C-alpha cells in the first residue's frame, strides 16, 4: 500500500510575510544587502523564488518590507502616545519620555537594530537602494517628530529650537546601538539614560522628562 502523501500546509499571507521578514533580517544582518540573493531568502524560508517574488516584487521590495513597513512603524511616537506610560499624554507628551520608550523598544529588537546599522553603513555607497533614505533621514525624523505637541520647558522657547537636540539624540542613539552590538556588551537602556542627563539637563527639564 502506497504511503499517504503529506498534506501541504497552506500559510496565510501574513504568516508567509513574517517568515520572509525573519529570514531577510537574519541574512542581511549576517552578510549585508549586497551579500545575499533572493534565492538565499527563498531557500531560508523554504519557498520557490517565484513564490518569494509574489510577496516582495523584487529585491528592493525586501528593504521596503523591513524598513518602511516594519522598522519605521514600530516604536513610533504614535505607539508611545497609546502606551499609557508616564509622559505619554497625547495632548502634552514629554519628548525625553518618548526617547526612553524608544531606547527600551530598540533594546528588545536586537536583530532589527543590527539589520538597520548594516544597511546604514552600506548606504554610504551612492548606488545602494537605501542611500537616499539614510541621507534624508535626519530631515524626515525632524518632520515626523514636529507633528506632535511636545510639552517643553519655557526656557527652550518652542519646538523650533529643538532641532539640534533632536539631531544629537538620533546621533547618540546610533552610536549606542553600534557599541551595544559589539563585545563586550553594554546595557542599551542604561547607556541612553546617561546621555539623557546631558541632553536634557537638570533643573530645566526636571518636570518635562
What would your notes on this structure say?
Helices cover 59% and strands 0% of the residues. By secondary structure, it is mostly helical. It is elongated, with a radius of gyration of 21 Å.
pLDDT < 50 stretches: 1-6
Question: Which percent band covers the strand fraction?
Answer: under 5%
Global outline: elongated
Average pLDDT: 91
Give the strand tally: 0
Distance between the termini: 72 Å
- Overall SS class: mainly alpha
Number of helices: 10
Radius of gyration: 21 Å
InterPro entries: Homeodomain-like_sf, HTH-type_TetR-like_transc_reg, HTH_TetR
GO molecular function: DNA-binding transcription factor activity; transcription cis-regulatory region binding
Protein name: AcrR family transcriptional regulator
Domain HTH tetR-type: 14-74
What secondary-structure arrangement, pairings included, does this model have?
Layout: H1 13-31, H2 38-45, H3 49-56, H4 59-71, H5 77-81, H6 95-107, H7 110-122, H8 131-145, H9 163-180, H10 188-199
Helix pairs in contact: 1-2, 1-7, 2-3, 6-10, 9-10
Amino acid at each position: 500500500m502506497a504511503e499517504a502523501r503529506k498534506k501541504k500546509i497552506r500559510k496565510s499571507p501574513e504568516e508567509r510575510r513574517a517568515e520572509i521578514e525573519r529570514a531577510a533580517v537574519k541574512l542581511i544582518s549576517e552578510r549585508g544587502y549586497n551579500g545575499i540573493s533572493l534565492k538565499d531568502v527563498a531557500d531560508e524560508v523554504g519557498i520557490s523564488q517565484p513564490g518569494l517574488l509574489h510577496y516582495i516584487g523584487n529585491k528592493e521590495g525586501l528593504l521596503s518590507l523591513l524598513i518602511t513597513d516594519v522598522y519605521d512603524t514600530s516604536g513610533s511616537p504614535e505607539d508611545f502616545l497609546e502606551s499609557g506610560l508616564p509622559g505619554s499624554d497625547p495632548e502634552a507628551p514629554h519628548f525625553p519620555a518618548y526617547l526612553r520608550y524608544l531606547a527600551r523598544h530598540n533594546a528588545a529588537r536586537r536583530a532589527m537594530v543590527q539589520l538597520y546599522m548594516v544597511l546604514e553603513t552600506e548606504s554610504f555607497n551612492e548606488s545602494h537602494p537605501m542611500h537616499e533614505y539614510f541621507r534624508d533621514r535626519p530631515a524626515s525624523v525632524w518632520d515626523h517628530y514636529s507633528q506632535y505637541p511636545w510639552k517643553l520647558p519655557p526656557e527652550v522657547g518652542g519646538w523650533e529650537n529643538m532641532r539640534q537636540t533632536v539631531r544629537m539624540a538620533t546621533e547618540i542613539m546610533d552610536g549606542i546601538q553600534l557599541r551595544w552590538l559589539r563585545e563586550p556588551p553594554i546595557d542599551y537602556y542604561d547607556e541612553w539614560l546617561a546621555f539623557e542627563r546631558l541632553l536634557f539637563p537638570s533643573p530645566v527639564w526636571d518636570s518635562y522628562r
